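Q: Hi! First time doing this. I have a protein sequence and I read that you can turn it into a structure. Is that right? Here it is:
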Amino acid sequence: MTKKVHSLFFVFLLIIGLIAWNDLPQAYPASGVISAHSQPQFGNEGKNVEEKSINKTSKQDVIQAINQAPLTNSRGSAIQSFASELSPGIILTFDDKSVDDWYSFLVLNNKYGVKATFYVSFFHTLNLNQLIELKLLQDAKNEIAYHTTNHVNALKYLKANSMDDYLNSEIFPDLNLMKEKGFRVQDLAYPYGAGNKELDQELLQYFKTVRYTAYPPKNKKIADFNPVYLKDKRQRVLNAVGIDNGYGHTDEEIFQGIDRAYNNHETLLLYGHVISNKPGNANTSMQRLETIIQYAQKKGMTFHTVSELGS
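A: Yes, that's right. Below is the predicted 3D structure, encoded as structure tokens:
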């Protein structure tokens, strides 16, 4: 019986994927003087974040997890909607296009009832399998958000091009395509964390929030770095601190950052790129993610998506 259900489920996924694939263009050219990046870069260090996953989570494991009982947290309670006041919590976000690696997050979805926000760039280059994986992530209550069409540094682009050029090259093409494919895109993260007030004002006409990347000074730890903490869920300009290997933050430092959020009734924003157990500057391991989740949930903290802000 289980085998039959799984077979029917895979047929269903294939149908969804074929429908999505029919109208998917092969590429959008990048306009202006900034060329499209064949691969996204890591932070401001220029490190490549694209690599093959070595995670051992199989698609069968994820399908089995999805077919289990409704999502609950580690204490067996049903996931609750975002509170009217911002509760102490964590917002996990991931950038770029490592969809095959992100897919393993579904195991944590089911095991702990947590959610994350995935900011996608180069959507027009995704293959059929990746479209299906993104749809399954969204169906599991994760947020699929936007990271522009070609992952261009907006500040560099605008030195030689107009704001309209930027919108027509980097915002509208893949944003419209994602919505056509059934993704509920509400939020944006700046590639390289490169934005300014002028861009914020323009882009907040199209998105609920915009998210920057933030780097604590050498003399400060995450817990001392105010920009990455939220108290007001109506805030629309956000900052997140990196948890990938290359950022050099230890688990203990992250735990101290979580402690501050809990003690001060705040929400801490974190971001990474590739979910992978392989050593690499742009990688965050499943073990680290699970450790963060377990530590926060022992305190009764909630994992939110960015789109739940302002709800």
